[in-house]
Design a protein that fits this description.
Elements (H helix, E strand, L loop, with lengths): L2 E6 L4 H11 L7 E7 L3 E7 L16 E7 L14 E2 L5 E9 L2 H10 L11 H10 L4 H8 L5 E9 L5 E6 L4 E4 L4 E4 L11 E4 L4 E6 L2 E6 L2 E3 L4 E2 L15 H7 L1 H13 L2 H7 L4 E6 L1 H18 L2 E6 H4 L9 E6 L5 H12 L3 E6 L5 H5 L2 E4 L12 H17 L5 H5 L1 H8 L5 H8 L3 E6 L3 H16 L2 E6 L17 E4 L6 H13 L4 E6 L3 H6 L2 E5 L4 H22 L18
Parallel strand pairs: 16-17, 16-18, 18-19, 19-20, 21-22, 21-23, 23-24, 24-25
Antiparallel strand pairs: 1-4, 1-10, 2-3, 2-4, 5-6, 6-7, 7-8, 8-12, 9-10, 9-11, 11-15, 12-13, 13-14
Length: 580
């Protein structure tokens, strides 16, 4: 969840590390810190955001540095819990992304042996374990203590007297960037692409030494080689480009993202071969990706006659379903801890695995049998928008490929329909939503997962309580909450469930709840029923789910903007969930 950055080279390290941390703030922004090594280690760290005015720069000397932006797990956000952390002698500095599960036991043992702790974090035990066993070689000392750590970690280390950065990875992402007479390392490629396109994705158990003359990687005490990957992201993709928020920029990028991802599915024959001819399929995912998985279920069952079950990654590891055949893992980052754990379990049961992800070279791409790469580019806002639409495009592309291009012409026009959605007026709906304390989203069929995702977007960034339901389920309890103060966003697109959706809306209106109806432009009956009607361009039901999803993203964004929320960095959340 946290973000870490390291630099060694010919330039002052502090500025490069600081700018890198700003690009990683979507991974956590409770506190930040930087350590550099010149003749000695110097540190600056503070609670709050590194991007806040007046907090963005520190003055640390040296051309070697490591830094951290935090999403708190152990210990409240505070100056003393901010990384980097030091050993007792203040000669070893550590930053860490992940969780040391046995830290409490290690901490008690270290205190009994005379060590003094300055923080409440799990990370600090690493510094003291290193101090206790330090033999003048930080790399071999790190290799010695790693078996003592249970949990997940990406670690960067500095030690006085050693002109290098030492790093290790286990179940948390870590990437090396190979520049011009300089090396960088980070939690993902976003801070690296400004300096280099050549990167190495480390594997679990890798320990790395970065020096001014190069790098070496060891695993299990033995030298190993890792492939150098060329990143195709452009640094401009990670900049605001005149938009007030990354979320709005990423919403407006979706027509091109949808088109690009449809093409990518066609370029993934290995993945499609693993899906063809199957009568059963399991999908595992979390958050917005889970909602995309539910859409895949409807698409594949409706169009391909395939039995599909969709499982939440966080439950899968502990309560695995019966497994056989192929398992699809959907993860924007390719590093979602729960989804990776589920895929490993599926592989242990003999299943073939397919990844749907936005990040080339991520862990999920290296562990699965085949991958469908989304073409969304870097997504900087914490709330998923263009990555969700890319996942949907992949699902439509898969369905089309498995049904001999039966929907190819419809899919090719979706990006044009999305462009129309970007300009539809929704001011009335925003005004109604911004004054509500609770909102309900309802839909049927494909539009049930769309309702779930719309509600998630609203609660993530506006902090308004919102729930999504299959429309028929409102009568089984939630009706008790309906009142004049609980607006309902009802998705009523012509199709098999359209008549009963109209009945559901009438039932809601009879309870006095205001209705925002999302339908097809020109639907007179829906206009008469609803308090506010939003008309979308006419598209087939299978592809209308894309235009509806973009509309609901806009509703959440504009409501949050009207309320003055911190849209790109909503409270308590982080972009990439790399811990359980």
């Amino acid at each position: 969840m946290c973000g870490i950055v390291g630099y060694i080279g010919r330039r002052p390290a502090e500025a490069i590390v600081t700018e890198g941390l700003k690009r990683l703030e979507y991974r956590g922004y409770d506190s930040f810190g930087v350590a550099t090594l010149d003749t000695m280690i110097t540190i600056a760290k503070k609670s709050g955001r590194i991007s806040d005015a007046g907090r963005s720069r520190v003055s640390l000397k040296g051309s070697i540095g490591i830094g951290h932006t935090r999403w708190a797990t152990h210990g409240e956000p505070s100056d003393r819990n901010a990384h980097p952390h030091l050993d007792c002698a203040e000669r070893i500095a550590v930053v860490h992304n992940g969780i040391i599960e046995n830290y409490a036991e290690l901490r008690r043992e270290l205190i009994d042996r005379g060590h003094s702790f300055r923080s409440e974090t799990d990370t600090e035990v690493i510094a003291h374990l290193l101090e206790e066993r330090y033999n003048g070689d930080l790399l071999t000392t790190l290799e010695e203590i790693l078996p003592l750590l249970t949990g997940s970690f990406a670690i960067l280390l500095l030690a006085e007297g050693e002109d290098r950065i030492v790093a290790a990875r286990m179940a948390s992402p870590l990437v090396i960037g190979i520049g011009d007479r300089e090396l960088l390392t980070a939690s993902d490629v976003t801070p690296l692409v400004e300096h280099t396109r050549r990167v190495i994705y480390l594997e679990d158990g890798d320990c790395v030494e970065l020096t001014r003359s190069g790098y070496r990687i060891r695993n299990g005490g033995m030298p190993v080689e890792r492939e150098i990957t060329e990143v195709d992201w452009d640094i401009e993709d990670a900049r605001l480009g005149g938009f007030p928020h990354y979320m709005q920029k990423e919403i407006f990028e979706q027509p091109q993202v949808f088109y690009n991802t449809l093409q990518a599915v066609r370029e993934s024959p290995d993945a499609l071969d693993l899906l063809r001819g199957r009568d059963r399929l399991t999908i595992v995912a979390c958050g917005s990706s889970y909602h995309a998985g539910l859409l895949y279920k409807y698409l594949l069952e409706m169009s391909c006659g395939m039995a599909v079950r969709v499982e939440q990654g966080s439950e899968f590891k502990y309560y695995p379903p019966p497994l056989s055949g192929t398992v699809i893992g959907i993860s924007q980052s390719g590093e979602t801890a729960d989804t990776l754990a589920a895929l490993k379990m599926a592989q242990s049961r003999g299943c073939r695995t397919v990844a749907v992800t936005n990040v080339v070279g991520s862990t999920i791409t290296r562990m699965t049998d085949a991958t469908i790469h989304l073409r969304a580019g870097p997504e900087m806002s914490v709330a998923a928008t263009k990555s969700f639409i890319a996942q949907l495009a992949a699902g439509l592309g898969i369905t089309d490929a498995l049904t001999d291009d039966s929907h190819a012409e419809e899919n090719r026009r979706v990006n044009v329909s999305i462009e129309e959605i970007l300009t539809i007026p929704i001011t009335e709906a925003v005004e109604l939503c911004r004054s509500a304390s609770s909102l309900f989203y309802i839909g049927r069929g494909l539009f049930y997962p769309a309702a779930l995702e719309g509600a998630l977007k609203m609660k993530e960034i506006s902090y308004i309580h919102a729930e999504g339901y299959a429309a028929g389920e409102l009568k089984h309890g939630p009706f008790a909450l309906l009142s004049g103060e609980t607006p309902v966003i009802a998705i009523a697109i012509p199709g098999a469930a359209y008549p009963v959706m109209l009945s559901n809306i009438k039932e809601i209106k009879a309870r006095g709840a205001p209705v925002i109806a999302v339908g097809i432009a020109g639907d007179i009956e829906l206009v008469e029923l609803a308090d506010i009607f939003i008309g979308l361009p006419k598209t087939p039901e299978l592809t209308a789910v894309a235009t509806v999803s973009v509309l609901l993203q806009r509703l959440a964004y504009e409501t949050a903007d009207a309320l003055g929320r911190d849209i790109d960095k909503p409270r308590n959340l982080a972009k990439s969930v790399t811990v359980e």
